[in-house]
Predict the structure.
Amino acid sequence: MTDLTMIWALILAFAVFVYVVLDGFDLGIGILYPFFPEKKDRDIMMNSVAPVWDGNETWLVLGGGGLFAAFPLAYSIILPALYPPIIAMLLALIFRGVAFEFRWRAETAIGRKAWDGAFIAGSVVAAFAQGIALGALLQGIEVEGRAYAGGWWDWLTPFTVLSGVAVVAGYGFLGACWLNLKLEGEVQAHVRRRARAFGIATVAGIVAVSLATPFLEPVYFSRWFGWPEILWVSPVPVAVALLTLGLGWSLVTDGRDWLPFVLALALFGLCFVGLGVSMWPYVIPPSVTLAEAAAPESSQMFMLVGAAVLIPIILAYTAYAYWVFRGKMDPEEGYH
């Protein structure tokens, strides 16, 4: 495997992770909406992400475009295998974006509730579809030669459904931690209660997926339970357990509203590390490695020059947007 292939693998992993944590709490707002029926609460919840929500999805475009350019073989196999959940995710994101704007223009309570329902459905479906896609990739895609050889419904299994539910719970937890950071008063107290419930569901989902994953492929099992590999990977579940204790403490202790969100990001980071441990060096387990799927070195180098310019600009814009709209939300001053 060339150094350029490794660099592009890290770039794409970074882009996907940033998308998950940024758009994750954004989608989490919609997942939490049913627990906050009051219009004033929903308005301030939506206003907490209104300045940044559309920019968060830049990372999804970067990840998808980067996969197409840097690992074209993987792109040509993964998309036919996952067309239904990917199409569902994209349609849900589009419908959710429309609902995000149109709910503010609704002239009647019924119209506003309809758009709120669309916002909720779009958020849940997008999150669930992303979990389905992750689970389908992790459980393995049937490949023959250089093409997808599976069926239309191969992506739908008990494991992928479990992954989808876990992602919905995780995004809801991220959204609750974000709102805890941004809100004050009675609505914040309600958010913290929901954060505890979604936190328990998230940890349960992580444990369930982690216990099931080693039994999907022999290489996963040997990676996590073989000797001496277990010595190298054991810090990951230990760190997850410590972070879980820290999150529980942070959600019952006042005065550090930023801490649950930071710890939640760290928890998602560890989940990504665990995913990388399981899948390495495959981009499509257990058939196609990163080296086999990579574009020619000349193409990778050409794209790397563009990425070296583009990614810092995206990072700078993102950091500036979050800095400008930092701090607690004022209920009397909405973004819209």
About this structure: The mean pLDDT is 87. Strands lie at 143-144, 147-148, 282-284, 288-289.
